[in-house]
Amino acid sequence: MASVARVTTITVRSEKGFDDAVASGVARASETLRNVTGAWVKEQKVEVSDGRVSGWSVTLEVTFVLDD
Amino acid sequence: MASVARVTTITVRSEKGFDDAVASGVARASETLRNVTGAWVKEQKVEVSDGRVSGWSVTLEVTFVLDD
Amino acid sequence: MASVARVTTITVRSEKGFDDAVASGVARASETLRNVTGAWVKEQKVEVSDGRVSGWSVTLEVTFVLDD
Amino acid sequence: MASVARVTTITVRSEKGFDDAVASGVARASETLRNVTGAWVKEQKVEVSDGRVSGWSVTLEVTFVLDD
Amino acid sequence: MASVARVTTITVRSEKGFDDAVASGVARASETLRNVTGAWVKEQKVEVSDGRVSGWSVTLEVTFVLDD
Amino acid sequence: MASVARVTTITVRSEKGFDDAVASGVARASETLRNVTGAWVKEQKVEVSDGRVSGWSVTLEVTFVLDD
Amino acid sequence: MASVARVTTITVRSEKGFDDAVASGVARASETLRNVTGAWVKEQKVEVSDGRVSGWSVTLEVTFVLDD
Amino acid sequence: MASVARVTTITVRSEKGFDDAVASGVARASETLRNVTGAWVKEQKVEVSDGRVSGWSVTLEVTFVLDD
Amino acid sequence: MASVARVTTITVRSEKGFDDAVASGVARASETLRNVTGAWVKEQKVEVSDGRVSGWSVTLEVTFVLDD
Amino acid sequence: MASVARVTTITVRSEKGFDDAVASGVARASETLRNVTGAWVKEQKVEVSDGRVSGWSVTLEVTFVLDD
Amino acid sequence: MASVARVTTITVRSEKGFDDAVASGVARASETLRNVTGAWVKEQKVEVSDGRVSGWSVTLEVTFVLDD
Amino acid sequence: MASVARVTTITVRSEKGFDDAVASGVARASETLRNVTGAWVKEQKVEVSDGRVSGWSVTLEVTFVLDD
Predict the structure, then answer these.
(1) Chains with at least 3 CB pairs less than 8 angstroms from chain J
(2) Which of C28, D60, J11, J17 is the most exposed place for a label (fewest CB within 10 A)?
(3) pLDDT: which is higher, F37 or B2
């Protein structure tokens, strides 16, 4: 039998760093989606204020397996 | 705290022009999705009948912020 | 009036071949989504065990028309 | 039976705007090609003179159906 | 001496499958073009009706050698 | 003798539309740069508020010829 | 502990079809490489003779796990 | 009035070098096409025999202006 | 009124890690450019000496708002 | 005299994070390859279990200089 | 300490050939920019007059190190 | 029977020019690899010292046929 997964794209902003942004995005996606199995980091950006990085954001392609 | 937005892709066809296609797509997306904040125009196509443009369609990547 | 379609991405794995993976993905998507009109094959991969192909998977961008 | 369409690339320059460039390109292509059914806008450029836009040009991939 | 080939793009739709679409496109191109030597499969799409694949289409870049 | 042009990237936001964004960007670039000859529209985005487009922004690659 | 896989690119030509080309490439790669786990189909081409497809070739990115 | 140019793709092989391949392709295209104005070098490949380069080939996108 | 931002590309090398490279690049850009608002991480590379990472470098596209 | 380097692609999975994945991949590649001089991070992915990141993997293009 | 380089894009046209275009662009860039260390050839185009190449132009991404 | 070729990536630096870099890379690859049949020029870069080009480097994807 065939198995099917969906891929959805999210953008996550953290005030701590890229690693936290990825972890937060995965956690948030798992609240609404069942069976999240992975995510691909597609983009990494930073926000800048007064010459310092004040925000880190990542675009993730999140994969989750569909129930049969 | 981290904030999260989702990105969804739609294709919109208008009989008036590209600007109307973008506006219609944004309006339609906002009916079902809360907190739409922006859209990226990824593709622009036209349909042709009898040597004239009879339809304009755009592919949009629509961003909307997820509620906490 | 403008008409709007959505595009969603799925990954489908079949134990029979690429054609079956595409057909299964389309069938599975049509169970939950109304008015699926087409799909674009974006990626094709195989799994290998003991020097033989043991699984075929495709990534599909599925288009479905939104009801008004 | 299989149906076949060809895709040809044209670049069109208008002195009025992007919309006129697309319409002109479609009209010009339809003079020599039968059964033009659509076009994809691949690139949009402007020419500039004295700080103002003096020309709009688009690159189109024009599709036309081949007669059997 | 230099030898020259041209590349032209076609889109072919079959009601049987991707393999038939490729074969039909190659056959159709060879009717009008001499010395077709190969084709590159650039895109693969399916049409869907009632949850089943009802059409297979491929975009081919067809190469043919120009006579001197 | 060789002639040399530079390419610089700008992002312009207009509250009127894409055409105005392009024209404004070209005008603004021409204030500081001499001999602007053209611009390539690389990206088109919209901002959305309350289900309506409230801002149009374009990313332009602006070309200007260097004096000898 | 970290696990490491290598990715190598091969091009395979079959006289039977794309499926056979993939299977042959996987089999051939497994003769010299241990622990081949999968392959990604990157390109699909056909050779043409007398208006018919006479060869199918695929470019594969083959993954194999490195022993510790 | 709008002006229109077409873009066509050719592949040229020379036994002398890349520069000769480009020049030959431009010359050959100008035999059949009127008003060739330029060409973009998209790909550069070499053929190898006995550890030496025996052929140079380029893929060109040739632009020519259409008569009104 | 339209607002305009410029995008400039820098490459930054750090001996501490990717995060430090991003922060250093943002700080360095802010010394010479006013109103830096963000940066996009386009590439990430490492230098290697004696089997260990000895340098981390990132390519950033830095955005800064132009004064009116 | 000309100098030559090879580029090879590896995928590395770590249970600690992206930085560890890069470092591990570089270390592992240096065991079998002499003169590794750098690596380019091409892709970053995470595995997810129970809503948390359980694995970090990177795809690296590793460069090593060939001995004469 | 971190070191920073900037990347700027130029287009250079020569009446002699591609090699001259690259050399001229590098020389011209070095007149205004200090510490130019390299350049990446991104595009190669030719102009055509009367069936012969009459101009060669290249697009270069020029790198120069910023003073501390 | 299926035939199989491998593709490997090398970067070659010459102090004479791009043509020499390609020729040197092909020659060097043929020392260790049997049956090299061709190479694709993927990237072209120059090194700059004191406003002059001091090195030319190319990235090649080299194809060689595997023995049965």
Answers:
(1) A, G, I, L
(2) J17
(3) F37
Q: Are the C-beta atoms of residues C12 and C22 closer than 8 Å to each other?
A: yes
Query: What mean pLDDT comes out for the span J26-54?
Result: 97
CA J4/CA L59 separation, integer angstroms? 10
pLDDT per position as a tens digit, I41-67 = 999 999 999 999 999 999 999 999 997
Give the nearest chain F residue to I9 (CA atoms).
Answer: F9
Work out whether the CA dihedral B29, B30, B36, B42 comes out positive or negative: positive
What is the predicted pLDDT for the residue at G1? 55
| Rounded Cα gap, residues L49 and K26, in angstroms | 10
Q: Where are the alpha helices (DSSP H) in C1-68?
A: 18-32
Query: Residue G2: what pLDDT?
Result: 72
Task: Give the three-class secondary structure for G34.
Answer: coil
- Return d(Cα L10, Cα L28) in angstroms, integer: 10
In a 3-state reduction of DSSP, which class is residue I24? helix
E24 interface with H at CB cutoff 8 Å: no
Q: Which of F2, F7, F61 is facing K20, going by the closest CB pair?
A: F2
**Contact (CB, 8 A) for J13 and G3:** yes
Q: Nearest 5°: CA angle at B58, between B56 and B62?
A: 150
Do K5 and K66 meet the contact criterion of CB atoms below 8 Å apart?
Answer: yes
Numbers of helices and strands, H then E, in chain I = 1, 3
Query: Which residues have CB under 8 Å from H18's CB, separation 6+?
Result: H44, H56, H58, L19
> How many Cα atoms sit within 13 Å of F19 on the Cβ side?
12
State the alpha helices, DSSP H only, in H8-60. Answer: 18-32
ipTM of the complex as predicted: 0.95
Sequence-distant (≥ 6) Cβ neighbours of residue C28 within 8 angstroms: A2, A4, A66, C10, C12
Give D17-53 pLDDT, tens digit per residue: 999 999 999 999 999 999 999 999 999 999 999 999 9
Q: What is the pLDDT of residue H16?
A: 97
Nearest to B50 by CA among D36, H2, D3, D67: D36
What is the phi/psi pair of residue C56, to 5°? -120, 130
Per CB-CB distance under 8 Å, the chain L contacts of J7 are: 9-11, 59
Write out residues in chain L with pLDDT < 50, as ranges.
none
Contact D13 H3 (CB under 8 A): yes
Could you tell me if B38 and F48 are in contact, meaning their C-beta atoms sit under 8 angstroms apart? yes
| Partner residue opposite H13 with nearest CB, options E2, E61, E63 | E2
Residues in chain L: 68
* Cα(L44)–Cα(L50) distance, integer angstroms: 20
Place of tokens 């295209």: H29
**Length in residues, chain H:** 68
Question: D-F interface: how many C-beta pairs under 8 angstroms?
Answer: 35
pLDDT score for A68: 62
pLDDT of residue C2: 72
K68 — pLDDT class (breaks 50, 70, 90): low
List Cα–Cα distances, J27 to D2, I53, J67, K42, in angstroms: 54, 8, 20, 33
Chains H and G touch, using 3 or more CB pairs below 8 Å: no
Of J56, J9, J19, give the one whose Cα is nearest residue I53.
J19
Q: Which two tokens stand for residue C33?
A: 């989504």
Task: List chain B pLDDT tens, one digit each, 68 residues.
Answer: 579 999 999 999 999 999 999 999 999 999 999 999 999 999 999 999 999 999 999 999 999 999 76
Q: How far is C55 from chain A (nearest CA, A)?
A: 10
In sequence order, what E strands does E1-68 have?
3-14, 36-49, 52-65
Residue F1 confidence (pLDDT) above 70: no
All domains in chain C, ordered by first residue: 5-65 (3.30.1660.10)
Q: Which residues pair with K40 in a beta bridge?
A: K61, L45
The alpha carbon dihedral of B51, B52, B54, B56 has a sign of positive
Going by C-alpha positions, the residue among D9, D32, D12 that lies closest to residue D22 is D12
